[in-house]
Write a structure and sequence with these properties.
5-stranded parallel beta sheet, binds S-adenosylmethionine, Methyltransferase, Cobalt-precorrin-4 Transmethylase, Domain 2, Cobalt-precorrin-4 Transmethylase, domain 1, 2 domains
Length: 250
């Protein structure tokens, strides 16, 4: 039986690791570290650093593997993602076989928490071929929580709902019906520019929780250009960026 531990590690701050996560990492036979390519090399480095910081059990082994790249040219987006997830599952299966055979505890460090815009759980469902697999999730701090903490704001108005969505959906579909608060992730294009800014406040953050963190907030009409410029400079300086924001209508 393979015990697969999917461990939420928070958003890049080693202090985001919970005691439960630290215990789980130390209970593993093998920790798999994905390499995502040069531009995100520092994230693999961060995973390694987290392991070095918290591992006290000398029996835990680390193994790195290269993540397959998604075929962005596939015109059928869903089919392309499906094929990509199959390819990742193949890579995990091989790394697990090489590392522990068909029995052992294998850990994967998941950015933030595996429940939020993350395919690790879906991929885990495809891995078990030729062995039994049991999946355990250790929750982590999400980028949304890191953002609200950095701005010291609640995500919802009293008794009110909110929606978490993507930059693409905000651009394509506009402000979602039935809510005054939306959190936007996976937005490479500053999609807040596509909505009517009147009466809207933005709380934006890049690299939230990390040493590089930048946060800005205020009326969207005043902050929009400033965020676009800040984002572009930060991306150029670091070679990569992850950002997230909350929009609230009065
Ligand atoms: C694939 S999703 C993963 C989300 C992750 N599972 C979580 O719990 O936050 C990646 C998106 O999360 C957001 N994100 C993750 N880490 C972030 C960080 N440190 N600062 C700002 N946004 C972050 C960005 O919107 C990014 O495009």
């Amino acid at each position: 039986m393979i015990e697969l531990l999917l461990i939420g590690i928070g958003t890049g701050n080693p202090d985001h690791l919970t005691l439960q996560a630290i215990k789980a990492l130390n209970s593993a036979d093998l920790i798999l570290i994905p390499r995502k390519g040069e531009t995100k090399a520092d994230l693999a480095e961060l995973r390694r650093a987290i392991c070095t910081d918290v591992l006290t059990n000398p029996a835990v082994r680390l193994a790195e593997f290269d993540l397959p790249v998604r075929d962005a040219a596939n015109p059928d987006y869903r089919a392309g993602v499906d094929d990509w997830h199959d390819a990742i599952a193949d890579t995990w299966r091989q790394a697990i076989r090489d590392g522990v055979g068909t029995a052992g505890r294998v850990a994967l460090l998941v950015w933030g928490d595996p429940s939020l815009y993350d395919s690790t759980l879906r991929i885990a469902g495809r891995v078990a071929t030729g062995f039994e697999l049991n999946v355990t999730v250790i929750p982590g701090i999400t980028s949304l929580q890191a953002l609200t903490a950095s701005h010291a704001i609640p995500i919802n108005d009293i008794g009110a709902p909110f929606i978490v969505t993507t930059g693409r959906r905000l651009r394509d579909e506009g402000w979602p019906a039935g809510v005054n608060t939306i959190a936007v992730m996976l937005d490479g294009e500053c999609s807040f520019r596509s909505i009517d800014a009147k009466g809207v406040t933005i709380w934006w953050g890049a690299y939230v929780g990390m040493a590089e963190e930048i946060i800005l907030s205020g009326p969207l009409s005043e902050m929009s250009d400033r965020i676009v410029g800040t984002r572009a400079r930060a991306r150029a300086d670091h070679g990569w960026i992850m950002d997230i924001y909350i929009l609230r209508r009065a």
